[in-house]
Amino acid sequence: MVNKVALLTAGGFAPCLSSAIGGLIQRYTEVAPDVEIIAYKHGYQGLLSGDYLTVTDQVRAHADLLHLFGGSPIGNSRVKLTNAADLVKRGLVNEGDDPLKVAADRLVADGVDVLHTIGGDDTNTTAADLAAYLAEHDYGLTVVGLPKTIDNDVIPIKQSLGAWTAAEQGALFAQNIVAEHNSGSRMLIIHEVMGRHCGWLTAATAQKYREWLDIQTWLPEIGLSREAWDVHAVYVPEAVIDIAAEADRLKKVMDEVGNVTIFLSEGAGLDAIVAELEKAGQEVPRDPFGHVKLDKVNPGAWFGAQFAELLGAEKVMIQKSGYFSRSAAANQADLDLIKQCTDLAVDSALAGTPGVIGQDEENGDELTAIAFDRIKGGKPFDIGQQWYRDLVEGIGQPAPVAAAAH
User: Fold this and answer.
1) Residues 92, 45: contact at Cβ < 8 Å?
2) Which of 220, 249, 182 is nearest to 397 (CA)?
3) Nearest CA to 299 among 257, 345, 237?
4) CA distance linking residue 74 with residue 82, whole number of Å
């Protein structure tokens, strides 16, 4: 019997968190209105400290408003429950405590029967650790997750919530940024897109942007040309980047068109950048999950420095669409997917079925509760897909060659 459920959002933002919260509240109100709902503030941080909001009748009556906003009304944080040293340092647990036990005991103390986690692979692998601990120690609690990542890189989930919107928003961002191509002569623009190990978002953003180009009317006689507004290179972590060969190709574009625009996945070339920093004796900053802090490493600046001289660029502009894209409200395609997933998440929770709700690529894309132990991060983008090959061919870039696996 489910009497009380808790929600939390964690990790980075994606254009689905607010709507997923709204969808869960609406579904519980529809099928199990007597179930109490609380929401831990700032993800696992709030769970450890017992800091939560109560979903009141007023919130239930107006939960539809949450579909109109981006971000997360209940807040996020990056907390790994198996990284005790980090949690002690942050004052979230005491020295010698097992954070998994602290979290489990807090759920019991708060009277929670079901925990809904909404996050990416780190959030859901942390949820998996917690679910395993709860099961091993007979806590009798059910954990049901929802997949959030704009990288669209959760194994074995076909489509993560919010990724479609992020690509659409990145293309919107690019419309204004690429308009800067004539703010100086021989301009190099690098549009850095989020994607640590997966290039899906960069590719999908470039595709969405070029779809916008396709429906515009151009006037080259006054300098309004598609060639100048186009994407001239798309670099993703899964493909080899031959900087010398690309510099030769893009130098011709710079000479003929007068500017060059690159869509760059923030994880592209990351191994080379880290190796260069370590060789120079510099410390590579990492987060609690051991990931390189990309905002500190700054891949866009690194690539800008590599290409600027080779292309004879007179001005270099590096712009990042990540925060613009990830905090947007969900578009209609994502809203439809979110509703399917939140409805099933509630139904699974009431049935006592744990797992992460998603389209299971390993089982005919069936929408189901996928066992936590099957959830992994870092799903590579398939650069062999025809739509991507068409995209690359359309911008005059050589056919993609797979890079060594990460």
Assistant:
1) yes
2) 249
3) 237
4) 23
Instruction: Please give the pLDDT value at position 230.
Output: 98
Q: What is the 3-state secondary structure (H, E, C) of 211-263?
A: HHHHCCCCEHHHCECHHHHCCCEEECCCECCCHHHHHHHHHHHHHHHCEEEEE
What pTM does this model have?
0.92
Q: If you compute the radius of gyration of the chain from its CA atoms, what whole number of angstroms results?
A: 23
366-370 vs 187-193, strand pairing mode: unpaired
**Is the pLDDT reported for residue 59 higher than 90?**
yes
- Write the CB contacts of 242 (distance below 8 Å, at least 6 apart in sequence): none
Nearest to 322 by CA among 14, 10, 7, 11: 14
- pLDDT tens, 127-159? 888 888 998 999 889 999 999 999 999 999 999
Q: Is 212 exposed, middle or buried (0-12, 13-18, 19+ CB in 10 A)?
A: middle
Which CA distances in Å does 102 have to 40, 46, 137?
A: 14, 12, 13
129 flagged as catalytic? no
Distance CA 154, CA 119 (A): 10
Q: Identify whether the C-beta of residue 177 lies closer than 8 Å to the C-beta of residue 339.
A: no
User: Which parts of 351-390 are beta strand (E)?
Assistant: 355-360, 366-370
Q: Which of 151, 334, 343, 360 is catalytic?
A: 151
What tens digit of pLDDT does each residue of 2-31 get?
999 999 999 899 999 999 999 999 999 999
At 176, the amino acid letter reads N
